[in-house]
Amino acid sequence: MSIGPKSVPSGVRETYGEAIDAELDGVDPEAPLWVFGDQLGPAVHQLPQHADREVVLVESSAVLRRRRYHRQKLHLLLSGMRHLDDQLGDRSTYHRTTSYREALEKVGRPVVVHEPTSWAAKDFVDGLREEGLVAAVLPTTTFARPKTEFAAWAGEDRSFTMENFYRNQRKRFDVLMEGESPVGGKWNLDHDNREEPPKRETLGVKDPWWPTEDGIDDEVRRDLDAMDLPTVGQDGPRRFAVTPDEARRALKRFVDHRLDPFGPYEDAVLAKDPTMAHSLLSVPLNLGVLHPFDAVHAAEEAYHDGTARLNSVEGFVRQILGWREYIWHLFWHFGRDYHRSNELDAKRPLPDFWTELDGDAVTAACLGHTMNELRDRGWVHHIPRLMILGNHALQRGYRPDQLTEWFTTSFVDGFAWVMPTNVVGMSQHADGGRLATKPYASGGAYLNRMTDHCGRCAFDPKVRVGEKACPFTAGYWQFVHRHQNLLRGNQRTARAVATMDRLKDLDAVLEQEQGRTEF
């Protein structure tokens, strides 16, 4: 199987070429190309429009110090940038400066740049363009669909739900299609991908591809130690691909050995198997060294070759071509103030065990284990994020803006465009239902069914009141009571309110949870 071109991914030129040419009309063909730390792949610097350009990479100490990032996240970012500099050789110039502006002034002539992936960076680049330091701002080519296409599609008289967007994506890029119909006759096979965890400690699949650190990684680690930056989490071995070659290897391992079992257990959690059959491709995707076209086409090929079942391939395609792209476009579509949404009026600040990633301070096995995994790895898969961390935060009413910042800085794959819609919309329902039709809140019964944490926990998922009362079970009813008017009017949550009304110990639950300090 041939996975991933070493040059521009198939489809990028066709999708973006005309818009790039229009922006570059009249611009010096040798103007340097400034590449951000999440634009490190061939879909940016190997475009034919950049063939004669010097590549400018900037390591800004001010940016590194701006937030309290996970130590491993900083390592991945710097490793990726320095590996690209090494790969490009004489073509690139690497600047270690206090600020981006300082580096661009050293370049000494206007640069071209692809539009960055946050509102703040976009505003900064637009300002530099007005000053003459930037000659052209080009479309972001590290996603499948241009923003202009999404804006036109979403602006038509239709519901731009995830499901509608996903079907449109499949048609637009002819993925898992038979003419105008989906392969297998169904668009969504999610019902086949909800298996409970097996009754063993691990899923038993082949390990993910793990990178081998090199001299560049050694240098990054020494430099980070010397910088003494304000970080969270533990340093550790690099676990994610940061170059196109590494990303191809990680993708191949996933497709060859892990994609087939991925689907059925994608929503399950095993404490001693943190990666299960997940791809671990979010970091290379978000650094730009793996293009979504490459990931999706490789998975589709595995289905047609008969090496991966359809529900697993469709589930993976839905994550990459559906959800990930949808989140990217909604980040821009919802606007720069979306992250401030707080429709549920959640006001509690994040507690210390969150900000310090201190799972040892937590009694609940699921919450403590997840926090420690994040401390040690900078990563957990989507169910611990949504149904353990997000569920707990939703029940306890933590501020969604603080939570968004925490997810962005504490996860190695967290970027400014990734987390607002995932956290504010999907996890915390703080946008009033613009993204999700109901809050993702659940009690301990769900966690007992989909994880293996509860059997070793001091709390009991079936108990609401007393010493063994599960904070997720009791917290769920506190959440339902607090927002009963909203939930009663939603057909997907009205039953929960009706059930709450029948609880004979509701007053005791509310009093207990109001004073709970131990989770």
UniProtKB/TrEMBL annotation:
Organism field: Actinomycetospora aurantiaca
Family annotation (PANTHER family): SLR1343 PROTEIN
Region (Disordered): 184-212
Gene3D superfamilies registered for this protein in UniProt: 1.25.40.80, Deoxyribodipyrimidine photolyase-related, DNA Cyclobutane Dipyrimidine Photolyase, subunit A, domain 3, HUPs
The name this protein goes by in its record: Cryptochrome/photolyase family protein
Compositionally biased region (Basic and acidic residues): 188-204
